[in-house]
Input
Amino acid sequence: MITPDTHPGILSPDTTLVILTWVSFFLLLIILHRFAWKPILEGLKVREDYIRKSLDDADKVKDQLAEVEVIKGKILEQAKDKANGIIEQSRKLGNDLAGQIEQRAKKNAEEIIISARQEIEGERERVRNALKKESVQTAVTLAEKILKENLDPEKNRNLINQAIKEL
Output
């Protein structure tokens, strides 16, 4: 105990007070460790795990987004290739149809030309026949005139033969 004679000074510590301070301090450390620091550390660990998981998920989503972009690019490229194929096929089909139409037109023109030539040939033959008939009529008319004049039969034959040769 402290007696008034042995009163400690400011610079000399009281041992009971020091021991009680140390006991209070360690007791407070134990209580804080058990009831405050442990839950705080566990909360911080949970939060750290949540943040780490969120970052991992964000990386996964970023990777998936990159994969989706690659897939989208491939799909767009395939669509372009398919569209170009359809366009090329349409051009080819158009050219084929144009060629077929041109061939049909040429064939029709040839048929028209052949038909016109046949008609011309038929008309030419008809005109020849008409000319022959007319020539014969003319020869007969000439023969009648000659006969009317009463020439001798030898001269008549010579004239008729000569008229026929000229035709």
About this structure: Helices lie at 15-148, 153-166. The chain has two helices and no strands.
